[in-house]
Structure formats: structure tokens, C-alpha cells
Design a protein that fits this description.
Length: about 280
């Protein structure tokens, strides 16, 4: 069984626990209002596709906790990390301190887990006027890149996200995909499945979270890239005629424990629906 340690970090009230609860505990966006701030570190085990277990460390974002992370608990927190997810609040009232914490986290990662993959989520983008989102996100990405390069981090991925639209699922789908071993083999099998079904597109998603694991297209020149995948993540319910197929896996989430999940495959030649 492959266990992957994942750190979820960011300033207090940046939305870390809300997004985790939506993705892994089936919360609706409006239900996250009742969540209380994370104190210290909360551990959650999430099983994907049978043998992959995410050991998710949801780290509280208060200043006092960061002092502990950087000093007393530095090795405990940052060693053997497979992947870091750092969340920025786009509406933060003290961005300088946010970037100070981010730089400290990157330095600790370089010391203890230099091969870890790094994802940065610029969160709560729904609070930015729609006509300004692209410009503001690009500016924030530039600052994040400067911080990464300042401590020697060359490779990272950055996404703008919101709990109120599909951007959260797109980002987390990309994150989880990076944790799946032998993803190339899986994609090859999915392409074969797409060809055998004579489907235009096949999407493999994890049933419990609805995160997209992979997708394949038979005729890339015949449709926009990822049409079905984007439809599935972007709408709650959609029924659309077409020769398409969906493959899905199952998984469960439990705090401090894991349960087995079976992977299943199904096809639908005429309709597509999201959960």
C-alpha cells in the first residue's frame, strides 16, 4: 500500500479546511460557514483507487503554530513530504506576512523534502471582480514565482480557485493525479478503453470525491480539449447527447483510518451526468 504525505498549509482563514471538507467530506460550499479554524495539525487518511492512501496534514495557519512548525516541529512536519499544497487568500489584509510564511515553508521543504512537488492555490477568487481576475491572478503568480526562485525552488504549479465553482476541482484533480504511481500506464489503458468503446472521450474519476484522475480522447481534432471533463466538473447535472464514455473509481474518506474501495468501469453511449 502506497502512502503519500501531503501538507496543506496557508494562513488562518485562507480556506484550507473548507476546500478539504468539500473535496473529501462531501460538504456543500454553503455548509463550510460552520467550520471552525484548524488548531495545530489535523491528520486525515484518504484512500484512492484501492492502494493509494493520502496522509493529509491540515496545518493550522495561526502565527503561533508557524513558530512551532519552523522550530520545534520542523523535521516532524516537513520531512518525507510527497507534496505541498500552499493556500493564499487573495483578499488577505497582510500579504507581506503571508509571503514570509510561504518563504519559510519553502526553505523547510528544501531542507527536509527537496524532491516534493509544490502546488500553490490562490484562493477565494470569487471575491475578485470577474473582469479583474485574470490580471490579479497573473500578478499574484508573479510574486509567488519570485518567492519560489528566491529559495531555489524551480518547479511549482499555481491555480486560482474558489469553492463556488469548478476551479477547486480542477486544481485538486491535477494535484491528485501527480500522486498516482504509474499514471502513464493508467492513461494508456484508458486510451485503449476509449478506442474499444469507440468513444470520443473517456473520463476516469474517483467516485467519492469526483476528482478527475485521467481522460482520453479518440479524436482530438474533432472536439475541444477536455470537453467532457470540463463539463463534468463545471456543472452539477448535465445530460448531453453524444458518443461518450465515463470510467469511474470508488473511494472513501475517514479521519485517522482508511477503508478499501473498488474501481469500476462503465460506459454511456448517449448521456453524461455529474453527481
Amino acid at each position: 500500500m502506497a502512502k503519500k504525505k501531503v501538507l496543506l498549509m496557508g494562513k488562518a482563514h485562507s480556506g484550507k479546511t473548507s476546500m478539504r471538507s468539500i473535496i473529501f467530506a462531501n460538504y456543500l460550499a454553503r455548509d463550510t460557514m460552520r467550520l471552525s479554524p484548524t488548531l495545530d495539525v489535523e491528520h486525515h487518511h484518504v484512500r484512492f483507487l484501492g492502494d493509494l492512501v493520502l496522509n493529509l496534514w491540515d496545518c493550522g495557519g495561526q502565527d503561533a503554530f508557524y513558530e512551532s512548525y519552523f522550530e520545534r516541529d520542523r523535521e516532524t512536519i516537513f520531512r518525507s513530504v510527497e507534496l505541498l499544497i500552499y493556500v493564499f487568500d487573495i483578499e488577505s489584509d497582510c500579504p507581506e506576512k503571508d509571503f514570509d510564511h510561504f518563504a519559510g515553508v519553502l526553505e523547510a521543504m528544501e531542507e527536509n523534502s527537496p524532491d516534493a512537488r509544490i502546488f500553490v492555490l490562490v484562493h477565494k477568487m470569487d471575491l475578485v471582480a470577474e473582469e479583474e481576475r485574470e490580471l490579479i491572478l497573473e500578478d499574484r503568480k508573479r510574486l509567488i514565482e519570485e518567492s519560489c526562485l528566491g529559495v531555489g525552488v524551480q518547479h511549482f504549479q499555481c491555480f486560482g480557485t474558489s469553492i463556488w465553482d469548478e476551479t477547486l476541482y480542477k486544481a485538486w484533480s491535477e494535484i491528485v493525479t501527480n500522486l498516482i504511481p504509474n499514471i502513464g500506464v493508467l492513461e494508456s489503458h484508458l486510451s485503449d478503453f476509449c478506442r474499444i468503446c469507440d468513444a470520443d472521450e473517456v473520463v476516469l474519476f474517483e467516485r467519492a470525491t469526483f476528482l478527475v484522475i485521467s481522460h482520453a480522447q479518440a479524436k482530438k481534432d474533432a472536439m475541444d480539449d477536455g470537453t467532457l471533463r470540463n463539463t463534468l466538473m463545471g456543472e452539477e447535472k448535465d445530460h448531453d447527447d453524444g458518443n461518450e464514455a465515463i470510467a469511474d473509481g470508488t473511494g472513501n474518506v475517514e479521519d485517522e483510518s482508511t477503508t478499501d474501495a473498488a474501481a469500476q468501469m462503465s460506459t454511456s453511449p448517449h448521456s453524461v451526468s455529474s453527481p
